Amino acid sequence: MLHSKTFVKKTRGGKVNKQVREHYLRDDIYCGAPICKVCDSSTARLSPSASTILIVDTNVVLNQIDLLENPAIDDVVMLSIVLEEVKNKNMGVYNRVRALCSNSLRRFFVFANEHHKDTFVKEMNKESKNDRNDREKAFSNFPVLTSKSIELAIRVAAQWYQTHLGGATHVLLITNDRENKRKAIEEGISAETIESYVKSLDRPELLDLLVQPTSEDVNMVEVEDLRPSKRKIMYTEHKPMSEITSGLHRGIYHQGKLRVNRYNPFEAYVGSESIGDEIIIYGRTNMNRAFDGDIVAVELLPQDQWHEEKSLSIAEEEDEDEDVHLVPSSTDDAPRTTSLVQGSAGDLNFASSHPSGRVIGIIKRNWHSYCGSLEPMPMPAGSGGTAHALFVSKDRRIPKIRIHTRQLENLLDKRIIVAVDSWDRLSRHPSGHYVRTIGEIGDTCNLKQEIGGRDTESEVVLIENDINSRPFSSQVLACLPPLPWSVSSGDLANPIRQDLRNLRVFSVDPPGCKDIDDALHCTSLPNGNFEVGVHIADVTNFVHPGTPIDDEAAERGTSVYLVERRIDMLPKPLTEGCYQGEQRSLAIHWVHIFTDGIVNFADVRIEQEMTPDAEIISKRYTKSVIKSCAALSYIEAQARMDDSRLMDPLTTDLRNMNALAKIMRLRRIERGALTLASAEVKFQIDTETHDPLDIGMYQIREANQMVEEFMLAANVSVAGKILEDFPLCSLLRRHPTPTREMLEPFLRTAAAVGLNLDASSSKALADSLDRAVGDDPYFNKLIRILATRCMTQAVYFCSGDLSPPEYHHYGLAAPLYTHFTSPIRRYADIIVHRLLAASLGICKLPPIFQDRPQLTSVADNLNYRHRNAQMAGRASVELHTLIYFRKRYGIEGPVYLTTRSEKGGGEWFVDEQQQKIRKMDGSLSYTVLQTVKIHMEVVEPQPNRPKLQLMLI
């Protein structure tokens, strides 16, 4: 059956178009219940013994997703109209619901009520002004159902299920909307609130998962025990969005993302484009219930208050409930240069040079689930009742969260996850609810780390950084090629894929690396030039657009590397698949690489003819089949190049390639590419317990730099190729030039130790860094580490979103750059592979490249996932450093001058210009970058929050 509706729609250009919406209705859409006598039971997803089938409305899904994910809640019908509205309102919740519906172990069934002839709501309610505004802002092609129409459609579907199943099972509509529940009951539909239903299950622990209802819901719950009239107002009321919007337009308010200082949780920063500077927010009162990552509206304080704070101190964990002001120190991961040496006991005299402000409204919340533990407290008298407890996140930037729990005794010694529900201006703390238990708290402080505790803390790292470590679904695994896989005769006969098995191809990677996706070859030509090939795994041969495996890779974005394990973007059969060939069983990459022996594999190749001076004569891009002759580690490759006795062809290829790489590297540096540094550490891990056995600095060899140079060159080359053919939809990577404000603290620090650094360009800065040497061999690396902290983040972007001058990569001094060389661990590279294949005429460009907003959204997710992967890796290093603390390399953090227990600590004065800190009585002084001795100790100033404390001795 065809249902059509005609309507008019105004375009962005102001024209009015007449459009007809055709909606196909069917009578063969099954209900999903195995007890049904009418529908095909082979499609059933619900339990055959279900006593109750639940139909949930949109707000229940949006607000109670933590409860729905609990295995105790099953036999749920998810209406397609509800899924669509959830998708429009919260993509994160939508993805979680889709995961539930696709999980074969859960009984969730998606019913296409909008396409069933008996459940389709024909008449749409008249749109309100707000509904119309929302639709026009979203540039919707068709009018959307109003909230009243959606409620009606949900009730119609519930009524149909009751009639359709004929009383064989109880159909229950779950809604917290008072009016919707009243209408449902009047219409003969069984309906309950979510709280009422959970109570009927006689599972008290499930009540902990409930989000507290809002004032519009059926059952109101007081946020605090005190009556509102008796409660003190803790925070000012947030401005309504209409007033915020008006204030932003008039320049009265300023919008930006709030970033809370990692070391000082009562200090935050809001980067404002409208004033071109950071606005500092001092104290929780001025933060006004904003969380780290919230998009906020800020009002500047009067300028005479910007320098008001003269006596400032660093907060310890026990200060968390005090609204104190702290030394401004960090906008991101590390302290500002002005406070690399920080105090904890005395006061520091400091005058802020940045504008100060206060949050007057929240534009977009960044609430999510947080990991931590409950603050220790005595057990209340009696048992079985609800207890109030304060949750303390492991992330100090997050304020304590008040929860209600019926299982306090079982949670006090556990790492748990808590979600935030609300933050009333009458409450010092936000309110939230318990989600789940991760495990026993790890005893990192006493180095008696049980395996369960260590695994718990590693899980916390993943959760805190929103890393998806769940096993791949059956739908994803079904996309894998049959194993064992090998190059077929059809692959060899395919005209788009060249047979290059005669080439001497090799790979060079870190020791023990299994997710290998690149290889090289370097052949001497009769004319004295070299044919150099960069071979990259042809991942897109197996990961096709729009498939479950592609969707999963796009959502994960990147592989995540922890100290003790790797979280893959793609299933291991693709990254570490097996190939049986030449009577040897080899562990290989499915399409490209190996651990030893000779195997066949397919790849995407960039081949260049280069002169001995590393000048490129010509280049070619092809798909091919190649045969490898060796898989070398960096150590093995370096040993071959250094051993003058070895003159075999493979070693000669390595030396030739290394000679070319040195020239390329020097030329790149001469153009202004920066050689920066980070404090990288490498752990030796026990293969059975996964505990750290040893720790040391990561060593960079010429072999590392050789591979890096050719991978960089390949990425630059592909960026130019895809942009030439697809100027509006290429995925590129840029590194914005740091602003003078970002570089200023670093330049002041350098000047304080006698270095006059020139940061007028990347070339000038690179040359200055080369000259920054001292008596300490580590000095230059320290300067480069500090320079790294001043840089902006490199990000992915769609070429059509920016102008060509903005494509520039500052760190590499390259006008164009992208990621192409690691497709098994970065989804950005998969996108670029598809662009290159289309550029070469091998295949058509997938539809997503015609939808620039969607492509921009993909780029944003890749940036988010890349950042989270970096943070998870760092957190993993911090965790294992706590476990193994007798030797420390590359460890960083605030250095405390005195402890709170010390008497007569005295005041300390910070001289920003000279980058010095000294006691007011002149008895002691220290200069930034001065070599000092410190005492290092794992301490636990607040229960369940161990940290590495650095104390000046």
TrEMBL record:
Keywords attached to this Swiss-Prot or TrEMBL record, sorted alphabetically, are: Exonuclease, Exosome, Hydrolase, Magnesium, Nuclease, Nucleus, RNA-binding, rRNA processing
Q: Which SMART domains match?
A: PINc, RNB
Query: Under which name does UniProt file this protein?
Result: Exosome complex exonuclease RRP44
Q: State the family it belongs to.
A: Belongs to the RNR ribonuclease family.
Source organism, top-level taxon: Eukaryota
Any single Gene Ontology cellular-component annotation: cytoplasmic exosome (RNase complex)
Q: Which cofactor does it need?
A: Mg(2+)
**Which coarse location class applies to the principal site listed for this UniProt protein?**
nucleus
Localisation = Nucleus
Q: Which SUPFAM superfamilies match?
A: Nucleic acid-binding proteins, PIN domain-like
